[in-house]
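REQUEST ID: PR-0412
SUBMITTED BY: lab tech R.K.
PRIORITY: routine
TASK: structure prediction, single protein chain
INPUT:
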Amino acid sequence: MEIERKFLVEQRPPAIVFTSAALRQGYLLIGDDGEVRVRDADGVYSLTVKSRGSLSREEHEIPLSREQFDELWPATLGRRVEKTRHEFTLGGMDAALDVFEGDLDGLVTVEVEFPSVSAARAFVPPEWFGPEVTEDASYKNASLAVHGQPGETPGARA
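STATUS: complete
OUTPUT:
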């Protein structure tokens, strides 16, 4: 079970210790029941199935070989996201700062994963977090991959 909250980031975060990875992910299936995606995280390949939901949802991930990823990647054309993910710890919880690239250049989000729904609800975000978008489906990566940044026409950026 994945329990996380997602926020926009509109100001530079404070100096934090993090690890970074270049991610490219594409969606094989996006539907009413959930999504299926493939991901390349600096040469670590995976296939992930996520149920529908916002604050909490089921998530199943299995590793892929590069050959398996390369076989599936073309099927994601038109449903892709590129970003650099900076992972860090925030109050003992895993967090990820995502800096998007390509058509989503300029979008920066932060996600925090929680051990329980009650911990997620009790979380008070630091000042550098912007508006919360956990419940806004247009900020889910699958939606961003298909529709672009909310309020923009996909491919409109030069």
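NOTES: The chain has a mean pLDDT of 92.
REVIEWED BY: pending
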